[in-house]
Recover the amino acids of this structure.
């Protein structure tokens, strides 16, 4: 019985450690997505004034991950701005 108790404590400690690492990874991923969307928002909204459909689709997918991970509403306003942009093909420069 003592061996079983020790095994359970070890398992509990491993699970606690893994849970903490997963939380850290999720928080890091949210920060990465927030940075990405902010950078894309500033580029398309402030520099170009339009967005292409592929870029918007990619940003939407990353935003979905951000939301699923519990991201806050900070980025929601940037997404509204991006969605409101005219959609057109990228111009040759």
């Amino acid at each position: 019985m003592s061996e079983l108790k020790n095994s359970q404590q070890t398992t509990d400690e491993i699970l606690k450690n893994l849970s903490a690492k997963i939380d850290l990874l999720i928080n890091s991923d949210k920060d990465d997505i927030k940075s990405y969307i902010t950078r894309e928002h500033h580029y398309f909204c402030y520099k170009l004034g339009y967005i292409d459909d592929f870029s918007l689709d990619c940003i939407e997918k990353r935003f979905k991950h951000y939301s699923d991970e519990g991201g806050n509403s900070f980025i929601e306003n940037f997404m509204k701005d991006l969605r409101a942009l005219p959609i057109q093909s990228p111009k040759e420069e």
Helices lie at 2-48, 53-68, 74-84. The chain is about 80% helix and 0% strand. The longest helix spans residues 2-48.
